[in-house]
Amino acid sequence: MHRPEAARWLKHPLRWQRGPVSGAAVVRGALGMGPLLAAGVASGHPREAVLAGLGAMFAGINDRPGTWRAGVLQMGVPAVGGALGVLLGVVGAAAGWWAVPLLAVVAVASGAVSVAGPVGSAAAVQLLVFAAVGSGMPLAVPAWVKAGSYLAGAGWIVLLRVAWAGAVHGRPTAPGRSGGGGGAGERLAVAAVFDALGDALAAVGTADAESARRRLTAALDRADEALWLRGRLPLPWERRAGRRRLAERFGAAAALCEAAVALLWEGERLPERVTEGPRRLAEAVRNDGVPGPLPTPVADSPARIAFDEAVLAAGLVFGGGSAAAAAQAPGAGRFRRGVAVWGPAGREYGLRVGVCVGASTAVALVLRADHWYWLPATAAFLVKPDYGPLFSRVVNRFAGTAVGVLAFAALAAAVSFAAPGSGWWGPVAAVTAAGMLMPLAVRHFAFQTAVVTLAVLAFVTLGGDTQAAAARLADTAIACAIVLLVGHLPRLVDTRARVGHRTAHALRHTLRYLDHVITTPVHGRDPRQRADLRRAAYHALAEARAAAESAAAELRTRPDPDWLRIAAGAERIADAATACAVRLEHGAPVPGQETVRRVTAVLAEVAAVVDGTGGRVVVAGEAEGCLTLDGILDEAERLSVLAAG
């Protein structure tokens, strides 16, 4: 049943992310902020210790599951952004009221950079937050010491992450094997692709088929990123043979996934034994071994023939008899051709962040002359469009801050939270507990806000501000009100720029993929090029769906297209293109030039309608040749009407 719109934005604040909690991340949290703070205070450098603790806190927030190489990227790049923000804050501290346009400009750039992806977004928000914090937090130390202390704190968490990987997995010992720390995380990422493939095959013909295919796309993205990072951040003891073998196995997974999408498109339930092959291959990847006998194929349709051929090819690859499947793997990381930073989405992001942060800075300077940084820093977190629906973030931010303030007050009443000199162990214990909770807290924005508030109040107490709690809660309430009002102004909530642009971007990637499929002779195709085009399309579609899901849970002030339905239709077009590729390779008639022209023209027109750059409502005609082109034309017509309506 279709839920009413009000239910989406009212229920979204209650949603929790699911997934296992990393025990290693909990240990790193315990060894992060608290020990750094204790060492700094004990050595007589509490101000530097506070900045180092803040660097460790934000690195802990970005300490997500994945390979250690991914961790270095996810924590290290944002830390550099935060250090640059600290340096910018020195300029803002001396600027007085000029801090308003300065932070507004930084906010516009931060919002625009957010479209580059999660790592760029995290770096942009740390740049903006610490430009505000550095402008308003009085710390009488040189600028380079501030930035260096912040980087040192983040670097400590990164070092713990790398050291943990080496301690748990160790160095490879068997000749020619990728082994432990040299590639254990990457092997797990590739094995997860085979596991997701088995789940997708089990879901064929059920209501869970589309969501299972999306989980498969996400697993492919993670594995592709892991292999890309492994090639760019190699360890000196890693063996090339292990890297090559893992790339070949990922190639086998990519070939199997293409054939599996064709099975999903056919929609007929599959016998259980069909899922056994991918699961055995997953176990073989995890153990860096061989899968043993695979299920005997039964070819009774073009999609089943293609899948069975891919299973046989994978068996050869895992047995060491062929490296041909490596040609099927997309170029690692090469599919990441994201939307332009200063395109429509980037401009919309930047304008919204700039206006909200600029307004918050001006109000903060009117209300108080010192310690005004909390208000624009809070606005920076709230207004980031890629962090979820605005109303949900506002509700959770205020609730989390209130809980954090109450927790801090309770701890302060129970133990000594004095300034440096007597009872500094209380704040150290508080930030240590906050560090341990952080891996669990990232599951919900309110929980994360409460933990961060507790840690920050402990930090500022050590800095000498013992009356910060009430002011922080008041500033948060003001920031929430500003962001809720300003962030919903008509010019700042253009979902066609934010969501339609991403959907059109995905449709154009799909068009390039489909054009390659139906215009390139079967025997003249480059498997790597087709794999690159396919991965680019599905990666862009995943981003479009994420944006559509966020927009669907927004508090709407104007009627918008049903972006979720449009994103689902775009995904079905990409699935149809993949099924078309498989059928053409197995004897389906090649479409005529007029059919090709009509299909490509219709998809280009739909993309223009979706992002509002032009176009008209298109109506598809009859199609000949490959059967899946009929579905593409029908789906394109529905998308066009939805986007125009």
TrEMBL record:
Please verify whether the record's keywords include Transmembrane: yes
Report whether Cell division shows up as a keyword of the record.
Answer: no
- Topology of the protein relative to the lipid bilayer: Multi-pass membrane protein
Segments passing through the bilayer: 72-91, 97-116, 123-144, 398-418, 449-470
Q: Which Pfam families match?
A: FUSC_2
Q: Where is the Integral membrane bound transporter domain?
A: 361-486
Q: Where this protein primarily resides, as one coarse class? A: membrane
Q: Which domain of life is it from?
A: Bacteria
**Compartments in which it is found:** Membrane
* Alphabetized InterPro entries for the sequence: Memb_transporter_dom (IPR049453)
Name the UniProt key words of this record, in alphabetical order: Membrane, Transmembrane, Transmembrane helix
What protein am I looking at?
Answer: FUSC family protein
